[in-house]
Write a structure and sequence with these properties.
The structure holds two protein chains of two kinds. Chain A is α/β, with parallel strands linked by helices. Chain A has helices spanning 44-51, 74-80, 95-105, 112-121, 138-150, 168-185, 196-202, 220-225, 229-235, and strands at residues 3-13, 19-29, 33-37, 62-64, 67-68, 81-84, 156-160, 188-192, 205-210, 213-218. Chain A is globular. Chain B folds into two domains: 1-60, no CATH class; 62-244, no CATH class. The chains are: A alpha/beta, B mainly alpha.
Chain lengths: 239, 258
């Protein structure tokens, strides 16, 4: 299987001189789920944001399908690489208006059939389309946010702890949906998570990030066997 | 035109009211006496100084003086509005651009349409009103945009992540900022004459003009202030929001408002 993303010596220093990422290098296989774990402040979210250029990575440090992402139009890149955040950040209006937002930016109008299909993809009934987005539960909102991202037909998904505020049933729904997206559409997923059980359930590959550098990389089983003390603490739920 | 302070006895008499206010402040332990005293002295000194200065400038009647005085007004206004929008990167420059645009367009149109002649005694007082109003609108717009963009960062970044440009991602916030900036002057214009008689008109009546003359000038003033608010509000909005983004449509980390 080919690699969707390649990271080569990605370092990032914020304007206030805080070093966030230090020479991060790894590959993200296409059509797989890669989880990024690590203590708070280890640079997980920043790493994710470099992949769709919400933060600007230095040139020739991040490659998408072999192409330096700083040479791709940033608006096109963000449509190809969708992102879900910890908060669903639903826009005012109806569920349908939220879902149609991305395509509308380039003048594409989604039909109601297309919106229904997107709702179905995230396991929500079609009558949700007319619902005011403000009335959704946390889990529903996050699934609408996922449908909104999928409307752009992305090749990869960046997930920044999207289930951390959800109840177990809602987490299950989101995970099941992501599995389906990987298996049926071949989506590449990069998933920042705090929950070890979740990582063990969903990850094909795990990256342990410590102080902005890659400390371990491998399958979930490999990572637990590697004996890194932070992995053990993570497994014990202390991170 | 009086060239000396013939009204001095009346000014001194009106100080009785300030004395009363200071008395109340002391009696109620409000502690504003020193501030009031400073305000009274400053108002007297500033206004008398500007009175003599204008007297001189009107006498010379040279267009160069108009540019100088309006330039100083704009500079002070930009500094003040820039301080109000403290969190906005390069805030003072943003305010300067917005206020200059509002003032130049408004005054330019008034002169081009021959509403007022290009002479110091007309343009300088008019510019004072226009610049003052642009300053208020610009400060409101900048402060509002800073607050809204900081507060609604998640929605804005969600929109950016969907491929929105910085302009598309903040369209709601931009509209709200212009509304907030323009509402006071629009409301004022709606209720003018019903609640209070505005300053320019009051001044003219007190100075002996007929109420009808005063009213006509006031109508022009209100209309011109709406224009100035729109020009500077719009400019402030579109120059301010760009300060929060990189050219690659990335929302920067907003500096704390000191």
């Amino acid at each position: 299987m080919s690699d969707k993303f390649q990271l080569a010596n990605l370092s990032l220093v914020l304007p206030n001189n805080v070093q966030i990422l230090q020479r991060v290098s790894f590959n993200i296989p296409a059509g797989k789920i890669t989880c990024v774990i690590g203590p708070s402040g280890s640079g997980k979210s920043t790493l994710l944001r470099c992949l769709n250029r919400l933060w600007e990575p230095p040139p020739t440090t991040v490659f998408l399908d072999g192409v330096d992402i700083t040479t791709i139009s940033v608006l096109e890149l963000r449509r190809r690489v969708g992102m879900l955040f910890q908060s669903a950040a639903i826009f005012p209006g109806t569920v349908a208006e939220n879902i149609a937002y991305g395509p509308a930016l380039t003048g594409q109008i989604l039909t109601s059939t297309e919106i229904d299909a997107l709702l179905e993809r995230v396991s929500l009934p079609g009558d949700f389309a007319r619902k005011p987005a403000g009335e959704l539960s946390g889990g529903q909102a996050q699934r609408v946010a996922l449908a909104r991202t999928l409307a752009n037909k992305p090749e990869a998904l960046l997930l920044d702890e999207p289930t951390s505020a959800l109840d177990p049933a809602a987490i299950y729904h989101v995970e099941e949906t992501i599995f389906k997206l990987r298996d049926r559409l071949g989506l590449t997923v990069i998933w920042v998570s705090h929950a070890i059980e979740q990582v063990q359930r969903v990850a094909d590959q795990v990256i342990l990030l410590v102080d902005g550098a890659v400390a371990e990389i491998g399958s979930p089983a490999h990572l637990l066997e590697s004996g890194h003390h932070l992995t053990e603490e993570f497994a014990a739920g202390r991170l | 035109m009086p060239t000396s302070l013939t009204w001095l006895p009346r000014i001194l008499a009106s100080l009785v009211l300030v004395a009363a206010a200071m008395g109340i402040s002391r009696w109620q332990k409000i502690g504003l006496e020193n501030d009031m005293l400073l305000a009274v002295v400053r108002a007297f000194a500033q206004l008398v100084a500007i009175g003599y200065a204008l007297d001189f400038i009107f006498g010379v009647n040279h267009p160069g003086w108009i540019l100088l005085v309006v330039g100083i007004m704009i500079g002070i206004a930009a500094y003040t509005a820039g301080k109000r929008g403290r969190g906005v990167p390069r805030g003072k420059r943003v305010a300067l651009i917005a206020i200059t645009t509002g003032a130049v367009l408004t005054l330019g149109l008034l002169i081009a349409l021959q509403v007022f002649p290009f002479a110091p005694r007309y343009i300088i007082p008019i510019a004072g009103m226009v610049v003052g109003n642009s300053m208020t609108v610009t400060g409101l717009v900048m402060a509002r945009l800073y607050d809204d963009i900081k507060l609604q960062r998640p929605q804005i970044e969600a929109a950016l992540a969907l491929g929105a440009t910085r302009r598309q991602a903040t369209s709601l916030q931009l509209r709200r900022a212009i509304t907030v900036g323009m509402t006071p002057i629009v409301d004022n214009t709606k209720t003018v004459g019903l609640i209070s008689l505005p300053g320019a008109m009051t001044g003219m009546i007190l100075a002996g003009a007929s109420p009808l003359e005063a009213v006509q000038l006031q109508i022009i003033v209100m209309y011109m202030l709406i224009g100035a608010a729109a020009f500077s509000g719009l400019t402030a909005t579109f120059v301010t929001y760009r300060q929060f983004f990189t050219p690659a449509h990335q929302l920067i980390i907003l500096p704390e408002q000191k």
